Amino acid sequence: MNDTELMKIIREAIAQATKGEAAPKCECKCECDGEVEDISAYSLREEFNIPNPYNKEEYMRLKAKTDARLGVWRAGPRPLTRTTLRVRADNAAAMDAVFNDVHEEYLERNNLKTYQTKCDSKETYLTRPDLGRVFDDETAAQIKKDCIAEPDVQIVVSDGLSSSAVEANIDAVLPAIYNGLKATGLKVGTPFFVKYGRVGAEDSVAKILDAKVTVILLGERPGLATSSSLSAYCVYGGYPGIPEANRTVVSNIHKAGTPPVEAGAYIAELCKQMYDKKASGLDLKA
């Protein structure tokens, strides 16, 4: 029995229960043909359910600055059904972001060849962060063979903890970075994709290619506010074991945060600063 047949039975049952009166018209936004409203499509910043608010304008001004669930109201002691469903939908999106892989077609479209860390599966990646920072000897040799040696700037893309972040932002971020670097005269390396990569994978890449500035664009851990946030971790003179304080981070890159194009332009400028000052992280601010 499909959804359409089930809906028909329900309508007939309602009609009988109401003594032959016409069944109430469906008020949902679906067409009752198996298609269901995408409850995650609406903006949390615009949703407001508090009846008779004292100052709705001020409330909406606050909501415009955050995706936190403000003004959701309740049904007795519990959240409204719509609020509950949205939380579950956002949680599902976050789970998908973690467990799904970036599509091969997407990487091919962006001319990103894939190299895998020592993690042999998603399960290994999630439980062994150390293996997500390094490559085996064969992969390291292949990277060295395929890519430009001793680049001034090396850009790497990785799934990290959100494949959704990569597919939502890289199309805009990468071109913006390369457009910004064109005017600097810096030698830019061959971009590629690291599967099952942690932030520290950029240190291994820096060592393999002898890169001066290395940038890894990586999907961040998703939450209920967004599952598509990207970050850029930038380092000068990277090497395995480099202190985390030596990294410069540009975070919260997504449509509701730092716009991808704007972030890309800033990352390019940041790369030039790090190259000129031969420093990154806290040393760059000294």
Structural commentary:
- This protein has 286 residues and is α/β, with parallel strands linked by helices.
- The chain has 2 domains: 3-97, Ethanolamine ammonia-lyase light chain (EutC), N-terminal domain (DNA Binding (I), subunit A, Orthogonal Bundle), CATH 1.10.30.40; 104-285, 3-Layer(aba) Sandwich (Rossmann fold), CATH 3.40.50.
- 40% of the residues lie in helices and 12% in strands.
- The chain has 10 helices and 6 strands; from the N terminus they run ααααβααβαβαβββαα.
- A 6-stranded mixed β-sheet has the order 1-3-2-4-5-6, sandwiched between helices.
- Helix 7 links the parallel strand 2 (153-158) and strand 3 (192-195).
- Helix 7 (163-182) crosses helix 9.
- The longest helix is centred in the middle third of the chain and has 20 residues, at 163-182.
- It starts with a helix and ends with a helix.
Short description:
This protein is an alpha/beta fold and 286 residues long.
- How many DSSP E strands? 6
Structural class: alpha/beta
The main sheet comes to:
6 strands, mixed
Based on CA atoms alone, the radius of gyration comes out at 24 Å
How many structural domains does the protein architecture include?
2
Q: What is the name of the CATH class of the largest domain?
A: Alpha Beta
Order of helices and strands: HHHHEHHEHEHEEEHH
Proportion of β residues?
5-15%
Would you tell me the overall average pLDDT? 90
CATH overall fold name of the largest domain: Rossmann fold
Distance between the termini: 68 Å
Q: What level of helicity do the residues show? A: 40-55%
Flag low-confidence runs.
Answer: 20-24
CATH architecture of the largest domain: 3-Layer(aba) Sandwich
| CATH fourth-tier homologous superfamily of the largest domain | Ethanolamine ammonia-lyase light chain (EutC)
DSSP summary: helix tally: 10
Shape from CA axes?
Answer: elongated
Read across the widest sheet, the strand sequence of neighbours is: 1-3-2-4-5-6
